[in-house]
Specification:
Blueprint: H1 2-12, E1 51-56, E2 64-68, E3 74-77, E4 81-84, H2 90-103, E5 111-117, E6 122-127, E7 133-136, H3 143-149, E8 157-168, E9 171-177, H4 179-184, E10 197-202, H5 207-215
Helix pairs in contact: 1-5
């Protein structure tokens, strides 16, 4: 019986098998996944708390290094003052700075802008994970990446009860994901957005009963153990 239990537990720990071929990237409307996508955006737009550098060539006094975008979406620059950059790409920012410098009598300014830190990109991971908390993440990170940041799922995690909360223009939205299906490639693994919140559910059964029901043959449930 001990060897049977050990074999059963080992078999259960391997997780769902991956499906060979293209991963399913179709959002499920029935699970509220309409506002979630498996496709990473090809352009990045600035948000409050992002840290940027703006270099004006041959004009070090007009350049900035590692300055965060304010909570109001503005970035303060020498000589030209505050620029609203929330929603801009770095190319948009370069163009806006150059135009303002021309108006300030700077001849043919050459401007380069870069994102130094994605400070706006924070995700909260709660529930049945090893290390719940708030984590910074890089653009393009998916649900699976957020769970990895939280050191993975606990043994009692309920894979079919993973919720992702997201602020939208219409209010707070929530979508449900089956993480077992995500890992096997049969359900969308959504790309995260800043301020997403992930909650992993926990089964109501004790660990003892979960392990017992998974490892014992069906007939053993009707006999004396």
């Amino acid at each position: 019986m001990v060897s049977l239990l050990a074999l059963g537990i080992a078999g259960c720990s391997s997780g769902p098998s991956a499906r060979v071929g293209l991963v399913d990237q179709t959002p499920s409307a029935a699970l509220g996944q309409q506002d979630y996508s498996g496709v990473e955006s090809s352009t990045y737009t600035l948000r409050p708390s992002d840290v940027v550098s703006v270099t004006v060539f041959l004009e070090p006094d007009l350049s900035i290094a590692s300055v965060p975008v304010g909570a109001d979406g503005n970035l303060s620059m020498p000589l030209i003052g505050a620029i609203r950059v929330d929603g801009m790409t770095t190319r948009d920012l370069e163009k806006a700075v150059a135009e303002r410098l021309v108006k300030a009598d700077i001849r043919e300014p050459r401007v380069s802008a870069n994102v130094m830190q994605f400070g706006s990109h924070l995700v909260t991971v709660e529930g049945s994970v090893e290390k719940p908390g708030m984590y910074p993440f890089k653009p393009g990170t998916r649900l699976s990446g957020a769970i990895a940041l939280a050191a993975g799922l606990k043994r009692e995690a309920k894979l079919g009860e993973v919720a992702v909360f997201r602020q939208t223009g219409a209010g707070m939205a929530v979508a449900k994901f089956d993480y077992g299906a995500v890992r096997s490639g049969t359900m969308l693994d959504p790309v995260l957005l800043p301020s997403d919140r992930i909650v992993v559910g926990t089964s109501g059964l004790s660990l003892f009963w979960q392990d017992l029901l998974k490892t014992l043959p069906a007939f053993a449930l009707f006999t004396n153990l």
